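Quick illustration for those who missed Monday's session on complexes.
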Amino acid sequence: MPKMSSRLVDRPSFEMTMSDSRTVFELQDIRRTYQVGSEFVHAIDGLDLQIQDGEFIAVIGTSGSGKSTLMHTLGFMDSPTSGQMSFEGEDVSNIGRGVRARLRSTRIGFVFQSYNLLPKLSVLDNVLLPLIYGRQNSINKKELGYSVLKRVGMEHRASHRPSQLSGGERQRVAIARSLVNKPRLILADEPTGNLDTKNRGRIMDLFGSLLDEGITLALVTHDDVVAQYAQRRIRMQDGKIVEDDGR
Ligand SMILES: Nc1ncnc2c1ncn2[C@@H]1O[C@H](COP(=O)(O)OP(=O)(O)OP(=O)(O)O)[C@@H](O)[C@H]1O
Ligand SMILES: [Mg+2]
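Prediction with magnesium ion bound:
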């Protein structure tokens, strides 16, 4: 059994309070090892990282370097194999499933590399999924859903199913879904990978206005133009950060 050192573990009805510190995340010597048969894959291999409030970070690096694994770790989708991790000043290295789920759905907006839209739900219902913990009534939820779809130019497709959309349209819906719970931090894995220049510009403008609103943004990209928008670039290689121009 891992040592349960976090105060969060003892508080099932835990609600985050804003920390005084400007540090959103602090990671120390984080490792994530997968075992496939008798082979061990070190997807993250001793990574140290601090993310400050309001930062805009681009995570770059070759395929297989651990970018998505890092995003899943920051997004509380996946637990590190070892290492220390704090979020808003609280130790989250060993928190349980319930706390992780709550943090994920109340504090973080996540855009998956593969969109992860549910095929049987409409665009609007997909966008409303993160509100599962919210207490809004259905009319408020719908309004909220339409407002975020509008921000990505997809309100006219609210009743469509994901299969009836183009790849770029699905990507924009996935971005809308990440905004609906008004997160403090947005983690986006290749959010512009399927967009044409016009829509890429539109999404980058949207990210710009979210930053103005005080959101912290970390996105994975293979696109130099997108990476140049960021204030800080982190390059990953073999599960490690090998370059960080913000430090
Ligand atoms: N569930 C898993 N089981 C085993 N190995 C995995 C698993 N997920 C990822 N890996 C391995 O971990 C390494 C890092 O994967 P990751 O998906 O983080 O790379 P990435 O930098 O996001 O790549 P890409 O740019 O292609 O999306 C890869 O070598 C990958 O094969
Ligand atoms: Mg990836």
